[in-house]
Target: Protein SYM1
Amino acid sequence: MSTFYKWYNARLATRPILTQCVTTAFLFGAGDVVAQTLSPDPALKGKYDYIRTGRMCFHGGVVFAPVVIQWYKLVSTRIVIPGRPMLEALARMAVDQTVWAPVGIASFYVSMGVLQLHSWDQIKEDLRTKWWRTMVGNYAVWPAVQFVNFRIVPLEYRLMFVNIVSIAWNAFLSWFSATSIEQSMQTLEKAEHKLEELEAKVEKRI
Model:
């Protein structure tokens, strides 16, 4: 870990934007690897879609990272509350989650659709059926993460912090974007049912 930390700092000092874009692409791809490896869809067992992973890498390194780098700089320079670090972090998080989160999630579905050569009607349908459900999941995870990010993590490491946390989140996004809304809802319902069964067994033992 210390070797990677030294390497990352050295690259960050010489080529900060390129370094952050490359590492973001890699970690977005890692999220897709997790999604495909752990996919509950029996049709995907024994198969691996390398092009899908490539799409995630492209979105992370070419679309997501350059925008977020500038976004974090903007938030950090424009939202400043001297002597109130907790309030400052809370304000930055609130702006991030009300302004960037909706746009960022929409850009993900548009980017995936364009890379898959979908028609604009198909892309709009994905946005209509999946955007809000993804936003609900976003608000269950990211407000707390971003509060910590803006409160503790130095500006130059914020994207890396988000990328590390995002491995699981990107796995969810990759899986959710690659399945129809009916399939994804069925899978979520099955997972909820299994969780309820597990909770019932635990309660009986108690």
